[in-house]
Amino acid sequence: MTGEKIKKELYRAIREIGEQKIQKDITSSIQSSQKYIDLLMNKCIRNLISAELISVHDRVIGTLSEAVLHFMLTISTLPSERKIRLNGELGIDVVIPNLRILKINPSKSIIVQFIKEGQELEKISKLQFIQPNSKNIWVVFHKPLTVTKYKIYSVFPDSFSNIIVDIHNFLKQSGDKSLRFVYTK
What we know:
Number of helices: 6
Low-confidence stretches: none
CATH architecture: 3-Layer(aba) Sandwich
CATH topology: Restriction Endonuclease
Radius of gyration: 16 Å
Order of helices and strands: HHHHEEHEEEH
Oligomer: single chain
């Protein structure tokens, strides 16, 4: 299944709920992001996962989780940089608030990495070269991991829906003053 098909399903679910409604609710209460992440994930998973796709289940869930996070970061106006390549090989899925802060002051920055296949777990330790604080490396996987070194978000059982609130709290605690544009349509 392609990433485009997954995004298409996500944006169908967003339209069904109402993008402006989601934005309005999250703008008035960041905690409402939890409800919308759950709702979007459940609507999309129900339509994307079927018996014949069991072999690509992890990849579909990982791609969907990443797309949901990108949407939620945009709608909540939380600062981030996405799809960063370092030295041409090490890929970072999301950096909060940005790569410049990560390089200057890693304690005020988070890396969010999505694991779409089991063998991708090996690259997580490589991220410590740029983010020495392992608790500021947040890993999203479709199921719980036994790794305690990093902050882990799982889709099943759900802890992933807390990620926007946690990012918001992290930025508040770290004193982030990034310019935020209000997303309107």
